[in-house]
Amino acid sequence: MRIHKLRKAALLIVGIASSAMATFHFFLPHIFGWADLVTGIPPPIRWGLFSVNVFFSSLLLSGGITTIIATLRNEESSLIAYCVFIGMGCFWIINASYQIIFPFPVAGLRWILLGFAITMAFLYVLSLLLPFVESAKKRAQHQAVGEGKNRA
Q1: pTM here?
Q2: Taking CA 14 as the corner, what is the angle to CA 72 and CA 107, rounded to the nearest 5 degrees?
Q3: For the chain, how far is it from start to end, CA to CA, in angstroms?
Q4: Strand, helix or coil at 88?
Q5: How sure is the predictor about 138, in pLDDT bands with cuts at 50, 70 and 90?
Q6: Which of 88, 72, 147 is nearest to 122 (CA)?
Q7: Which of 8, 61, 83, 91 is most open to solvent, judged by the fewest CB atoms within 10 Å of its CB?
Q8: Does residue 103 sit in helix, strand or coil?
């Protein structure tokens, strides 16, 4: 039962954190004044920059909210939930890998963003592996009970 609670906590943390990061990204261009910084680039590239940010933010928010909903509805073991968790885990693994290969250019923020991505990837992977740990633990307990009956 403790493993189930740990998994649920991990999923709620990553769901909330992914949703928060997505929400922040919707406002990122305004907060950092992107419009003033991209006046010299061709309009299609400028449009692409802003649209990719909106598309990314939407997908990340959808994944985070879906993670939260599946967890709160106790559906975290359904096939669809597993697909979302695998997709989100892969997203954060790719995010962390990209940051390792191409570090963010602001030194202090570089480590915060990388740490965030690694933590998110770890928690998604952990939540995917914990049911297997729980299943193996139950099998071992059943075997021990079976062996105890055979001895009696």
Answers
A1: 0.84
A2: 165
A3: 29
A4: helix
A5: confident
A6: 88
A7: 83
A8: coil
